[in-house]
Amino acid sequence: MTFTTDRFTNPTSTFDIVSSTLATFKRLSTDDQLGLLWVLYENMGGAITPAAPGAARLQLAAGLLERVKSMSFQEQLQVQRDLADKVETPETRAYGVLSNNNKLAFWFQLGEWMRSGEAVPVPANYKLSLDANRVFDQIARLEFNQQITILRQAVVNMGIDPLA
């Protein structure tokens, strides 16, 4: 699937569109959110690299990433669900103190490992649910910076910030 670059000239409209799409994303089930993140990674992964890992200090997330990588696939999936559901665990608390760029880089690295088989893979026959596919279609119609903003905000809002 190819993303289009519809341009919106009214900043308020752009903000509203991003906010509305993000709100729709948050209403998805946990597994639909995770599935949509995977599909977005598959479609935007190459473009995320300069936007996240290049700008982030991934070593700050390295301990958490290695801890997740050492888990069974079922445990890895549970960590992802706990992050999305904001369940308080040592992993979600460690994630919560990461910077916004490091949170995006965390998911990017997890996606890389999922692709290589080092982390729980998405089933080969996986298809987005109807609701998740609608959100994907909304995101696909946005310009790249809006897409990255939605992706960043989706992962920034996950986990537990122990300092809050």
Could you characterize what this model shows?
With 164 residues, the chain is mostly helical. Helix content is 68%, strand content 0%. It is built from eight helices and no strands. The model is unreliable at 1-12 (pLDDT under 50).
What keywords describe this structure?
164 residues; mainly alpha; 8 helices
**Coarse shape:** globular
Could you describe the largest sheet, including whether it forms a barrel? none
Order of helices and strands: HHHHHHHH
Helix content: 55-70%
Continuous helix count = 8
The overall average pLDDT, rounded, is 85
Our Rg estimate from Cα atoms comes to 15 Å
How many strands appear in the DSSP assignment? 0
Q: What proportion strand?
A: under 5%
Class derived from helix and strand content? mainly alpha
Q: Terminal Cα separation, in Å?
A: 39 Å
Q: Low-confidence stretches at least 5 residues in length (pLDDT < 50)?
A: 1-12
